[in-house]
Amino acid sequence: MTKPWFKKLPFGQSRLGRLIFGLNIIGLLVLVIGALVLNELRQGLITAQKESLTAQALQMSEVIAQAATTGVPEPSLDAHYASQLLARFIPAEQRARLYDEQGNPIVDSTLVMDMVEVTELPPARKPGEAPPKDKSAAQADMRAAAEKELRQEVMMALAGAEVATVRRNDRGVKVVSVSVPLRRVKQVLGVLTIERDDFESIVQAQRLAMVPFILVALGVTLFSSLLLNFLVSRPIQRLSAAADSVRAGHTRAISLPDLEARKDEIGTLARSLESMTDTLWRRMEEIDRFAADVSHEIKNPLTSIRSALETLDLVKDDKAKERLLAVVNQDVRRLDRLITDISNASRLDAELSRDTPRRLEVGVLLEDIVSLYRQGQKPGEAQVMFVRERAQAMVNGREGPLGQVFRNVIDNARSFSPQNGEVRVTLTTNSDQALPVLIRFEDDGPGIPDDNLETIFQRFYTSRPKGTSFGRNSGLGLSISRQIVEAHYGRIWAENRTDGDGKVVGARFHIALPTL
């Protein structure tokens, strides 16, 4: 199928490019058409010529009435002397006529000054060509109409009125015509008519003078349209094609270095799209790893359960059967814990996006959580204590997720604490001004191996002390906590507590958050 002609132009492939070009051209056309019409200039020129001819005609009529009239008490017009005055004072580009008191023509300046009327001859006929149609009838009608208009103008002036109008002469050309009565005392001796036919040529000359400016404006419009097409439309097309390539799986991310280096909005858009696609790919890889980790973690207890159930039919000893059933129960509890935590982790992003942050006083939230632990404390369990060193800690956060973080860290600390131990929660001020709110969690447990201070925040990582019930921890608590804290633009990290001799006496977790 053949492409339309406009799609072969440099900007024709883009709807935005065609829109840019079209709007620029429309704006230019409006300006050009308005300039070519020149209504204001044309009307102003006509008005000026009317005023000029009227003043000239009045002055000339006074001269003729004073110098070219004879007779007392009934004056009459001296046609010969009046014609000499017209020949002396009327410019060549004007035509003057003098009429008597009955409206009959007396003098015509074109005859007095021996002016020759020039008319273009028709082109020569070729051999065998038919003769052109006779135009004499049309020309006769045109002259008759012109004579009629002129006659009406003269009669109005004989009635004592000063007439200034635009009409067509006997050649069909528009002229500015002024007719004034010739008065001697109060008697009207005749009419002086002056006409000028050059205002159309003046307007045409003005139009021709504007052609270079129009061509320059057209060139600037074409250049600006092409420039906008290359600077705006083409880059957006490239970004769209790059996004389609990412969607189709041909590339991992949008990478257009020449666009990303730009300092304008297109560069910002390119960098934002690259960052977005890169984040999406990282999130997809994270989901893939999460699915693989979930599959691995679930397979372990399932394998253990299947092995125990297969062995159960072969074992005859009741005590051995009870041990196998105990293993099955532990694995079932572990599966239940895993599935619960996996469900919470998978819903976390959606919950964070739905829950709108609001003003939250962290100290009040910590006090409520610690009071619940103190109320539900069982014999032998570590006691949770709260110390408030900061008077106020207002943050922009989500109460539910932040409460889950604090409970996860407290539960982790309690699980490593000895019997009847103590977990201390302290709200204080951080030295980092960007994250001024600091919550510190301390326990008296065995601490954390130096190599695992960062590893403990990975999914499904567990390092339980001996004697801890199997299956009570999924290894997702601290991973979820870090995800929630980072969603609040905060930071969470762990370190060991040491005494004066450098011996590890427990673990310490820090959560730093920005304030309002």
Task: Offer a quick outline of the entry.
With 516 residues, this protein is an alpha+beta fold. Helix content is 53%, strand content 17%.
- Number of DSSP helices? 12
What is the count of distinct domains? 3
- By CATH, the architecture of the largest domain is named 2-Layer Sandwich
CATH hierarchy, class of the largest domain:
Alpha Beta
Name the average pLDDT.
81
- How many beta strands in the DSSP annotation? 14
Percent helix, as a range, is: 40-55%
**Cα-based radius of gyration, to the nearest Å:** 51 Å
End-to-end Cα distance = 62 Å
Biggest beta sheet attributes: 5 strands, antiparallel
Strand content: 15-25%
For the record, what is the CATH homologous superfamily label of the largest domain?
Histidine kinase-like ATPase, C-terminal domain
Any idea of the CATH topology of the largest domain?
Answer: Heat Shock Protein 90
Structural class: alpha+beta
Report on the structure:
By secondary structure, the protein is an alpha+beta fold. It has 3 domains: 38-115 and 135-197, Beta-Lactamase (2-Layer Sandwich); 252-353, Signal transduction histidine kinase, dimerisation/phosphotransfer (DHp) domain (Helix Hairpins, Orthogonal Bundle), CATH 1.10.287.130; 355-516, Histidine kinase-like ATPase, C-terminal domain (Heat Shock Protein 90). Helices cover 53% and strands 17% of the residues. The chain is built from 12 helices and 14 strands. The chain has helices spanning 15-37, 39-67, 79-89, 109-112, 136-158, 199-247, 257-260, 265-312, 318-354, 362-375, 399-416, 477-487; strands at 69-70, 76-77, 94-100, 105-108, 163-168, 174-184, 187-196, 358-361, 383-388, 394-397, 422-429, 437-442, 491-498, 504-513. Mean pLDDT is 81; it is low at 467-471.
